[in-house]
Amino acid sequence: MTPTNADKANQPGGENPLAGVELSFIGTGVMAEAMIAGLLKQQLVTAAQVSGSHPRPARRAELAERYGIRMVEGNRDAARGAIVVLAVKPQKLHGVLQELKETLQAEQLVVSIIAGARLETITGELLHPAVVRAMPNTPAQIGAGMTVWTPTAQVSDTQANQVRAMLGALGREMRVVEERQIDMATALSATGPTYIFLLMEALVDAGVHMGFSREVARELVIETMLGSTLFAKESHKHPAELRNMVTSPGGTSAEAIYQMEKGGLRTVLSKAVYAAFQRAVALGKK
After folding, report:
1. Is 46 within 8 Å of 104 (Cβ atoms)?
2. Which of 87, 114, 214, 218 is most exposed, with minimal Cβ within 10 Å?
3. Structural domains of the chain ordered from first start
4. pLDDT of 217-226, one tens digit each?
5. Number of C-alpha atoms within 13 angstroms, CB side, residue 174?
């Protein structure tokens, strides 16, 4: 994983790749707002550099008031920036691409954060070669996300650095070479919070079953998962090694692991991730 340019931009003597660059968000839902908020918070851009589109007047007014950015109704009117971020719902993508077709300048960069939208689909319908496909996840909303991305061959080094800075505002970013790995990341990191939240829910329910109040069980589970994750990250040890560290012969962990293995937890998780991967691939073929 590479350090983000958002990190580099804040280091002494570091340059901000987004200085003076205008950004246009086509669709300003939850994830687009997370990007806007992160970019402004880290001072990678000013409000004057950001434009966005949304069909609902109330949403446009809300974002304009909250962030001081330029909000418009029409996608063509919004797509004036050097970087155009496609953040609409997947079912609206075709219509948006047709609307923007042949309207972008050659030097503009398109960044898509739309699940399942393949590079060939975007470049082919938009008739624009410089495109990046990115897949963020839910924790991006609090600046703790993991975003995997890949560019077409026409994306320049300067533009790639701009993308690193943009996605770094959401948390961490990782560039991959093959687009297939975006579908893989969709199943593992983008869908990943789903697995974690379900596991959290199950553990909280188990705590309630034993007799804890739901509030106490929730706090115990969240802090345990947070601490375990930070420990795993800082220790640089393999998860199996960390698990062995807390598994004493004949102890509580050994008994718990036996029951989980007996129930096929590892297999179920593996099948779930692979099913999500197959679904991501299928979405891209529609």
Report:
1. no
2. 214
3. 5-177 (3.40.50.720), 192-285 (1.10.3730.10)
4. 999 999 999 9
5. 18
